[in-house]
Each structure stands twice: as structure tokens, then as C-alpha cells.
């Protein structure tokens, strides 16, 4: 089944170029019921917007270092973000080393922006770029070389930790997902069985139990004296969980590739891996792209689960900061700020994915 | 999928030489699989040996006998009898019941809100559609843990019971919990629930009978009103016959708390709001796409044969929409149940929270986590089984 959203003809939009009055007649005041509905809803929206505006802008305190000022104000205390943004965004990382985290975020965002640009969609550019930026980020985060102070990964926190968890999840999870999806449709019954059991079992349990395994059980599996970094264990745990969901999505894409494609590849004597890599996967990934994006956004939200095992991601750091008796009354502002960060990145990701869908469907009906 | 080009050689081209043997698909396939099986067995054995080794060195007991030990911790919310003297198994049962209760309530709320918002998304009213879209985008894109934490902080910042937030005499909102007035409990309630169950069964039987009757005679019997009358009327009748008890139990301040009425803990409320709002955003989108999936021609065709509008909704749009809605709805329900496992961040004693305490007390991480995983796997599999049955019921019946 080809998803209808993939077909991209310029649709006939009856609303385009319609006079405003005509548009309102059709979309707001079609009949008595719709008119009443419109009036009630607009009234509700306007009063809500007014309340929010009064609380968030008119009566709000934007800059101050004195909690007393906020106490006297009737509205929001956005100043809490100004005062607390460093522990919120950077967690327990040593205060005077925070510039390294800022630099890390800059490097990361630059790498991502370059990778998202179709002009650079070339493994000969992307692979060295990512290797370089991962190395740079590792150096910045750990330190210990070039006169930088060594910071163990237990002290990492805030936004950089969320970024590392999310990126690690996607970078590790996507290849695993493709392998699992191929395994599930493999001609080898044994590989198929293993993939099915793995995918179904992991999809049936909550992420938290997998994090518990990564933290509490995995060390027991290693021979004595061997240790794996806790952050790495957790990232791999989230990545495998992510991969199981993603594998099902990719499998859907694989199933949607027409049978003739396999037959055509077989008729020119391509091997299994040649067929998969050059013929099937590119088409399957394109078909599955909308759902793949959904799961990537979900992976970003899922990084917040690490609060349960005590990793200091942006949410944990904020919750910890909000224990401060002077400022804890303004928790709503702080949590709104964090929610806004998640919303912003989630929105940016899905907008970008929609753009990619347009690019890769140029020339298709 | 067994591709034809991977198929074993047929009689016509039997392998003859060693070269043919080495390059035969069947032999290679078997070889790879044996290799994989051996590798997995070896890995499993290696890990098992390590675990046994590590556990004996750290003096951690193995096996599930610890479930019979006394738990020594108190649980705040319990619906089945439990004391710190009870066993770990009892504690886990309390947690399981709590998980099921919050999930069931969450599924009901998420479904109701999700369907309302989903229908608002295709209401044809631009203003309402935008409002619904905003709601969906916000609740879907903010992590469920953040939402739950937000609500627990809001509820914990309510005033203390002494100067509670008062909703008339019907409710008090405090940082200790929410207290509402409720009908005072009488034995009549039991009979009313029984009547409700009886009404539902009678309604189902009536609907089936009406369909049979229609198939045989071609005469249509509308079971909507009689069905509603059965489901709602029977309990009402029982209530009337029992002398219509109207006594209401109000929450009254006493000491540092309230007595009477019903009370809901902040932890339960925060978790419930968090997981059900999060799921409602996804359900709204599922409902929207389901309604939009009904082709326009179906509605036009129904109008062309002069079907009444309510019949168009019930017999043309809804059955087709439900076919699209049910499968993704199932997975939303299952993921809501799994999301309830974040209870530990708000302090609600669900299965994972209690399992976590148990794990910290006994050190038997492998067993404790295995118990949690098996229970959730069981819940997920049961849920998808039930929904698959339902799905078969609404799926296209080709004749």
C-alpha cells in the first residue's frame, strides 16, 4: 500500500483565492449551529488568551535576581529561567566549564544542520563529518586532553546529556532497526524466528524495565573486572527499544515494495545484499518515512525516562533545581520552558521530515 | 517470506560437484543458520556463566523464593488487604491492581477525550479545528513524564487541608488529595451494578436478535433507544424499587484531613491526567484519520438511497471508520498501559514502583525485573488478543 500522502499532485484547493467573507461563511458560519459554535469557541479562546497574556506578559517579571520581586508580582516569574538556566540546561557539570557545553551544542547543531541539507547527502561527506564532530564532542565533554579538565560522564547533565542520549539512540538504533526488519523478512527461518521473538518481547515491555536491565542486570552479564560505562549502557538500552519499534515501521515499508522489484532484481542476478541495499531498502525507507519520523520524535521524548534511573537530563536537572525553596513557587514557568524546548525540537523535526517527503517525491505522482 | 529465488534446487539441477555443493542455496542457508544458532547458544552460555559467577561472588540469592518473605514496607494506596507484614508477592499484587486501575481509568478518559478532540478536528468549524489541533500538538509532543511531573507539582502546591480550595460543599482540593461528595454507600449499589451488567447483556442479545429478525423478514427494528433504556433504565428501576436512597456523604474536615465522600490521591490524579492526556492526543489523530478515510462517495451513495442522516453515521461512516481506527487504537491502549509504569516519578505505587523497592531491598534484580517484564508482556499480549478479536468482528466481511 502506497501511503496517499506520498502521492503529491498539486491539489485543487477551493479555499484558495476565496474572498474573506465567502471563506468565513463556509468555514465559520455555515449554519446556525456552526455559528453558535464559532462564537462560543472564539469567546473561550479569547478569554483564555487574555488570561494567559495577562499572566505571562502584563503582570510578569522578566528580569530580576530577587525572588521577593516575583512574590509581589501577580503574574509569571520568567526571571526564574534567567536565574536558574545554567543548572537547568547544564546539570551538574562543573560551573566554570560550562563554555565547553555551549561549544558542544554549537558543534552538534552545526553538524545536524549540515547533515539535513540535501546538498551534503553523500556518505563521503557525512561519515567524516560525523566522525569529526563526535570526536570533538567527546573531547569537549570528557576533557582530560589539551589542558581541559577531566569531567567523568557521571557529572554530565542537562541539555547536552539529552542531546547525547537522543543522538546515540538514533545512530545506534537505526542500523539495528534495519537489521531486525530484514531479519523479520529474511528467507532464513532461524533469523526470522529470532527477530520476531526479539521485536515482540521488547515491544511488549515498558522502556523503564529495559533501563532497569541496562543499569542493574547488564553488569551481571559481564565477566569479572569488565565494566561498561553507565551512560553507554543506558543509551544502548533506549536504542534497542527504539530499534524494535522502528523495525516494525521499516518492515511495513519493505512489505509495501512491489513484488516486481524483487523479481526484476533477481532477473538481473543481483545477490540478496545487492537487491536489499540498492533496490529494496531505498524504496522501503521512502515509503516508511512519515512513521520513521514519528518514532524519531518519540525517541527524543523517551530520553526523559532516564529521570527514573537518576541520570541528570534536562528534565531531571529542572526538577532538582525546582527544589530550591526560594524559587520553587515558580515551577510552572520552569516546566513550561522545558516543555517548550521539547516542543520546539519535535516541531522542527516533523517540519523537516515533511520537507524531505516533498524533496524525495519530486517527479512522482 | 520464502522468495522463489532462494528456493532449494529442484530435481532438474541437483548439485553434482563440490563446487555446486558449496554454492547451493539450500546448503548455504542451512550453514548460515547453524552458524547463527551456535553463536547465539555460545553467547547465552557465556552470559549465563557470568551471571552465576557474579551472583555467587556477591552472595546474592537466586530464584523466586524471596517472594514469600515479609516485605517490611508500607504502601500508600491499596485496594486489596496489605500490611508491612505481608509478603513480597502480596506487595506485587497490590502494585498490579494499582497498575490495572490507573490504566483502566486512563483508557476510559483518553478514549472519551480523544474521540471528542478527534471529531472536533473534522467538525468543519475552522476555529474549533484549530483549537483541537493546538491541543493535540501540545499533548503529543511534550514527554509524558514531564506532563505527569507537572501535574504532581501542581497538585502538591494546592493549599493544605486547613484552607482547602473549596468547590461549594461538594469538593475540597488540597495538597493531600482531592475529596468529593459521593452517594453514601448502601447495599443497593451492588444490585444497581448487577442490573447494569444485566442490562448490557440484554442489550447485546436484543441487538443480535434484531439483526436476525431483519435478515429473515427484512423489517428493521431500531435497537438504539430500547438498548439505552435497558442499560440505564434497569439500574434506575432498582434504585426506585429500593426506595430511592438519596443520602450523600460529604467530605468533612476532621483533624488534618477529611472524612466521608470519596478521596483521590494526588499521585493517582497526576499519573492519570498525565498518561490519559498524552494518549488522548494520539487517539484524536487516529479518530480523525479514521473519519477522513471514509470515501465521500459512500456518504453520497447513502444519501442517494435516502438513508436518514443518523443511519448514515451509524451504518455507513462509523463501521468503515472503526475498521481504520481499531488497530492503531489497540496499540495506543497498550502503550498507555506501559506508560503507567512511569508511576514512580509521581510516587504512585504501581507494579514497577513496588518492584523497584523490592529490587533495592533484596538485591535480586534479575528476578524482580523478570517479574515486571513478564507481567507487562502478559498484559500487552492479552490486550492485543482481545482487540484482535474485536477487530475481526468489525473487519470487512466479504461474502
From TrEMBL, chain A:
The chain crosses the membrane at residues 32-53, 98-117, 129-151, 163-182, 194-219, 231-250, 305-323, 329-349. Keywords: Cell membrane, Membrane, Transmembrane, Transmembrane helix, Transport. GO terms for cellular component: ATP-binding cassette (ABC) transporter complex. CDD domains: TM_PBP2. It is a multi-pass membrane protein. Pfam families: BPD_transp_1. It is found in: Cell inner membrane; Cell membrane. It comes from the Bacteria. Residues 159-353 form the ABC transmembrane type-1 domain. InterPro entries: AA_ABC_transptr_permease_3TM, ArtM/GltK/GlnP/TcyL/YhdX-like, MetI-like, MetI-like_sf. SUPFAM superfamilies: MetI-like. One of its GO terms (biological process) is amino acid transport. The keyword Transport applies. GO terms for molecular function: transmembrane transporter activity. Belongs to the binding-protein-dependent transport system permease family. HisMQ subfamily. This is Amino acid ABC transporter permease. It comes from Pseudotabrizicola alkalilacus.
Amino acid at each position: 500500500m502506497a501511503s496517499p500522502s506520498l502521492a503529491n499532485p498539486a491539489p485543487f484547493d477551493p479555499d484558495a483565492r476565496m474572498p474573506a467573507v465567502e471563506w468565513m461563511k463556509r468555514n465559520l458560519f455555515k449554519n446556525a449551529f456552526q455559528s453558535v459554535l464559532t462564537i462560543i469557541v472564539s469567546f473561550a479562546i479569547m478569554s483564555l488568551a487574555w488570561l494567559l497574556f495577562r499572566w505571562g506578559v502584563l503582570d510578569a517579571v522578566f528580569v530580576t535576581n530577587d525572588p521577593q520581586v516575583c512574590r509581589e508580582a501577580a503574574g509569571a516569574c520568567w526571571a526564574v529561567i534567567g536565574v536558574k538556566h545554567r543548572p537547568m540546561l547544564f546539570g551538574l557539570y562543573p560551573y566554570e566549564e560550562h563554555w565547553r557545553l555551549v561549544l558542544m551544542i554549537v558543534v552538534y547543531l552545526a553538524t545536524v544542520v549540515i547533515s539535513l541539507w540535501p546538498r551534503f547527502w553523500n556518505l563521503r561527506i557525512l561519515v567524516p563529518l560525523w566522525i569529526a564532530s563526535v570526536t570533538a564532542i567527546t573531547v569537549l565533554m570528557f576533557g582530560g586532553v589539551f589542558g581541559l579538565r577531566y569531567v567523568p560522564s557521571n557529572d554530565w547533565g542537562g541539555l547536552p546529556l539529552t542531546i547525547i542520549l537522543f543522538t546515540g539512540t538514533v545512530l545506534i538504533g537505526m542500523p539495528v532497526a534495519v537489521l531486525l526488519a530484514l531479519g523479520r523478512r529474511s528467507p532464513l527461518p532461524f533469523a526470522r524466528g529470532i527477530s520476531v521473538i526479539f521485536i515482540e518481547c521488547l515491544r511488549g515491555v515498558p522502556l523503564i524495565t529495559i533501563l532497569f536491565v541496562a543499569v542493574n542486570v547488564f553488569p551481571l552479564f559481564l565477566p569479572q573486572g569488565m565494566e561498561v560505562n553507565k551512560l553507554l549502557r543506558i543509551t544502548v538500552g533506549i536504542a534497542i527499544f527504539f530499534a524494535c519499534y522502528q523495525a516494525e515501521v521499516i518492515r511495513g515499508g519493505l512489505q509495501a515494495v512491489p513484488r516486481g522489484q524483487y523479481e526484476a532484481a533477481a532477473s538481473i542476478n543481483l545477490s540478496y545484499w545487492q537487491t536489499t541495499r540498492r533496490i529494496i531498502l531505498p524504496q522501503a525507507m521512502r515509503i516508511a518515512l512519515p512513521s520513521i519520523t514519528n518514532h524519531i520524535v518519540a525517541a527524543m521524548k523517551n530520553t526523559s525516562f532516564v529521570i527514573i534511573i537518576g541520570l541528570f537530563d534536562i528534565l531531571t536537572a529542572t526538577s532538582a533545581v525546582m527544589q530550591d525553596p526560594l524559587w520553587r513557587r515558580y515551577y510552572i514557568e520552569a516546566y513550561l520552558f522545558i516543555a517548550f524546548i521539547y516542543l520546539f525540537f519535535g516541531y522542527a523535526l516533523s517540519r523537516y521530515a515533511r520537507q524531505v517527503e516533498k524533496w524525495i517525491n519530486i517527479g512522482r505522482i | 517470506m520464502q522468495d522463489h529465488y532462494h528456493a532449494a534446487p529442484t530435481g532438474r539441477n541437483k548439485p553434482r560437484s563440490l563446487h555446486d555443493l558449496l554454492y547451493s542455496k539450500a546448503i548455504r542457508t542451512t550453514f548460515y543458520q547453524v552458524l547463527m544458532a551456535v553463536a547465539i547458544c555460545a553467547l547465552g552460555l557465556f552470559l549465563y556463566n557470568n551471571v552465576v559467577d557474579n551472583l555467587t561472588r556477591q552472595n546474592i540469592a537466586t530464584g523466586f523464593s524471596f517472594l514469600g518473605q515479609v516485605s517490611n514496607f508500607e504502601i500508600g494506596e491499596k485496594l486489596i488487604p496489605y500490611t508491612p507484614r505481608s509478603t513480597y508477592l502480596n506487595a506485587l499484587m497490590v502494585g498490579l491492581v494499582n497498575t490495572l486501575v490507573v490504566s483502566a481509568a486512563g483508557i476510559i478518559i483518553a478514549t472519551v477525550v480523544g474521540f471528542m478532540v478527534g471529531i472536533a478536528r473534522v467538525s468543519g468549524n475552522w476555529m474549533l479545528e484549530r483549537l483541537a489541533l493546538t491541543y493535540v500538538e501540545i499533548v503529543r509532543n511534550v514527554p509524558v513524564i514531564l506532563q505527569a511531573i507537572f501535574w504532581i507539582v501542581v497538585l502538591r502546591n494546592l493549599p493544605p487541608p486547613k484552607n482547602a480550595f473549596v468547590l461549594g460543599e461538594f469538593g475540597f482540593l488540597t495538597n493531600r488529595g482531592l475529596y468529593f461528595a459521593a452517594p453514601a454507600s448502601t447495599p443497593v449499589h451492588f444490585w444497581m451494578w448487577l442490573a447494569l451488567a444485566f442490562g448490557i447483556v440484554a442489550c447485546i442479545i436484543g441487538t443480535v436478535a434484531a439483526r436476525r429478525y431483519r435478515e429473515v423478514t427484512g423489517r428493521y427494528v431500531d435497537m438504539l433507544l430500547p438498548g439505552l433504556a435497558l442499560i440505564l433504565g434497569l439500574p434506575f428501576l432498582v434504585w426506585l424499587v429500593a426506595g430511592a436512597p438519596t443520602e450523600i456523604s460529604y467530605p468533612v474536615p476532621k483533624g488534618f484531613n477529611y472524612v466521608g465522600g470519596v478521596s483521590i490521591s494526588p499521585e493517582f490524579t497526576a499519573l492519570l491526567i498525565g498518561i490519559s492526556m498524552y494518549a488522548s492526543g494520539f487517539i484524536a489523530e487516529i479518530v480523525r484519520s479514521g473519519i477522513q478515510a471514509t470515501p465521500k462517495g459512500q456518504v453520497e451513495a447513502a444519501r442517494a438511497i435516502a438513508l436518514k442522516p443518523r443511519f448514515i453515521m451509524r451504518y455507513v461512516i462509523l463501521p468503515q471508520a472503526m475498521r481504520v481506527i481499531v488497530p492503531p487504537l489497540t496499540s495506543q491502549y497498550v502503550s498507555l498501559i506501559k506508560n503507567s509504569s512511569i508511576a514512580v516519578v509521581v510516587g504512585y505505587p504501581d507494579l514497577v514502583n513496588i518492584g523497584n523497592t523490592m529490587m533495592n531491598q533484596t538485591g535480586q534484580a534479575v528476578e524482580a525485573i523478570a517479574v515486571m517484564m513478564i507481567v507487562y508482556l502478559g498484559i500487552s499480549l492479552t490486550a492485543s488478543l482481545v482487540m484482535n478479536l474485536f477487530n475481526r468482528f468489525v473487519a470487512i466481511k466479504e461474502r
